[in-house]
Amino acid sequence: MKKSTSYFFVGLTLFAGLCFSCSDNKKGKDGRTDTYSSGAISFVSDESFSPIIEEERTVFQFDYPQAKVTPVYTNESDAINRLLDGKAWLAFAARDFKASELQNLQARNFRPVSIKVAYDALAFIVNKASSDTIISVQDIMNVMSGKATKWSDISNGASSGTITVVFDNAKSSTVHYVEDSILGGKPITNPNVAAVNKTAEVIKYVEENPGAIGVIGNNWLNDKHDSTNLTFNKNIRVMRVSKVHPATPASSRLPYQYYIYNGEYPLVRTIYALLNDPRRGLPWGFAHFIEGPKGQRIVMKAGLLPVLGQINVRDVNVSQ
Length: 320
Fold this sequence. Notes:
Elements: E1 4-13, E2 39-46, H1 50-63, E3 67-74, H2 76-84, E4 90-93, H3 99-107, E5 113-127, E6 134-136, H4 137-144, E7 164-167, H5 173-182, E8 193-195, H6 199-208, E9 212-217, E10 236-238, E11 240-242, E12 252-253, H7 257-261, E13 268-275, H8 282-291, H9 293-301, E14 310-319
Parallel strand pairs: 2-3, 2-4, 6-11, 7-8, 7-9
Antiparallel strand pairs: 1-14, 4-13, 5-9, 5-10, 5-13, 11-12
């Protein structure tokens, strides 16, 4: 007999409208000719957001064929520094402007703006053969602080050997989230932590190393063929994370949209579009497109949680 498992499927209804201004394309003092919906600009983004940003960019340029937005994917620190130095007008990051950054820009007669565009979850992934699939926030703190260096050191640790933690980049938004939101502002001190260059390399490392834990954004996980966003990448296993310690299957949650929505998944972060564009041209147009109805539907389809719109929750029965 087939067992029927009930999942929650999160749907989105948007009421807001979005229209692009018809500003002219006169050349500004900085040599730019872009408008809200035309021209060519580049922007910067933390690399961990590249899957969702690429989906947004593809649809935006299809809808507005006179617009070309070119990404520069880097780490979060570099992205924000480029924005502050005037080398970019738009940056995507997992944090808002700091007060000191706002004061610096405002003192130079800029009017920086931040826009929340999505919520995503920090996901912990392990090798497909791993028997350790649940972990508590306290376990994560112990691993990152070096108090737990072996699988046997964490609650319910069934595997043997050393834990190797792998991040996408030493200055990425994932590292900053762990240090700021999990460790309370303290640095990661586990000696068995490695940083590669890109999120795809984190996934590859975990696929090839049974003792590894990879830390990535959940927009890298979803099976694009599953419209319910309930199926993850089949080449790795996603750990269930528990707010309580020790972790149990009943207390642990996967980074599904529904658990991000209701707060049961504990590791959620906000994706911001940071703008410092005095012309209010194409960088503004692209950022507001993502914030608008079509952009938020793309966010929803990618497995992240939109910031705008009415959320609809439905039961979905999946046969096993």
